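Sample A.
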Amino acid sequence: MTSTTAAHNLLTDNPELYEARFPDPDRLAGRWTEDCLRRHGTGERVLDMGCGTGRDAAHLHGAGRTVTGADISEAMLAHARTNHPGPVYVRADLHDFDLGRGVFDAVVCLDSALLYCHTNDQLDAFFRSCRRALAPDGLLVAEMRNGAYFLGRVDLLDAPAVNSLAWQGTAYRSHTTLTVDRTAQLLRRTRVWTTDDGSPPVEQRSAWRLLFPQELRHFLATHGFEVLELHDGPGPRTEPPWQEGQLPGDTTDADRLHVVARLTTPH
């Protein structure tokens, strides 16, 4: 059966399906983030940039922080307001946002959201936006794929990853293929969805910037940040995952990258 290419993203257009596909019942990502913020003694005002369905933003709110969740997807924001209340949710583009000058003590950017900045200009705009948003000594906490992992490794590229789930009475199956675009320095993802209800397969494409540890250090330093932590785990999406009380490691070789940086030269 011939697949059709969707104009939108099935997961971000259907936040309930997203949460079913990527469950986080223990709020591991939110707890890891709160641990980072607490260890570095940051203030209570937090911007969750690329907040998605709002689960992590709501966890940080429950931990006593004043949280703004920002995303470009209206569907995600509507879901967050209804299902994960507490934070203020606003629409903003991580490529270039202005939510006020010096109004946050921390900017959080999880689950590779930062890597949707595909070009150097987009990365510069993101870090400039963070710098503008942060108060003096504010923190940036980010978690993402590690570009360095793909230097000579093909285990994530060899074959499609297949996942199945049932949602609203329909069985969904996804086949996800990753390819490296070395010229553009992108990790391209093709995901084909099939269902058991007779609908034609749907093909969707996206990409992440392959950002390397030393490259990330350079961008941060250029925009006035001091790197406090840069490591490949433990984190919320590592294997094994982070557990309460664990301190960051000192290598950057595995497939996830975690950074905590402090703003030393405000805009």
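Sample B.
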Amino acid sequence: MSKPIMAKATAVWLVDNTTISFKQIADFVGMHELEVQGIADGDVAAGVKGFDPIANNQLTQEEIDAAEKNPSHKLKLKFNPAAQGEEKRRGPRYTPLSKRQDRPASILWLVKFHPELTDGQIGKLVGTTKPTIQAIRDRTHWNISNIQPIDPVALGLCKQSELDAAVQKAAAKKAREGEVMSDDERRKLVSTEQSLEMEAEPKIPTAIEGLETFTLSGDDSDDDDKSDSDYADADSFFSLPGDSDDDEEEDAKS
């Protein structure tokens, strides 16, 4: 459901000028019921001037009266023909400054796991330019050695529904063009949730790499027999080389 503009200021006005319940106001403006209660207590939105939804063509007085009489009545935003289509995105996607550094990682993820997506589709998903996408495809990006592929949905650069819609559209286009995808490409046509649930392949640490094929030469049974026979006697185990000769010389002198 569409929400009113200046939601917090509208909630302030409704709290101050009507007897509508906190729950009804919260549902209408898209806030939590406790936050609306905080507005009534003066703990939230202190100093915020109320925004009259009736004067600004967002609510009718009849709608407010119906909500005051019936606590279960849900406020409905007044239909405004001039506002139709305003919720649709116009122009390139805006990416916050804090997330713009994550775009190369998301581009690499899309190029790697969804090669069927065009540069235009990737640009719309993460809000980037075609030269940047091409540089990552060709691995000529200045920071390509430090970029790790990360899911754009996990980074908050696009929604899961938008990514799934783009993948399905690309797959349908390939089907119309008669291109037959390989099994490897078909396995890549999965949603982000499925790809994140894939188990990582077990990796061997580099420090012990190659030890999995290491084997001892010779027969282990021979070594066991030899060790048992050599060290069966404790005295022989602790005797040092040359001890037997010294003992014989001392016996001869005596």
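B remarks: Residues 218 and 224 are 11 Å apart (CA to CA). The two ends are 112 Å apart (CA to CA).
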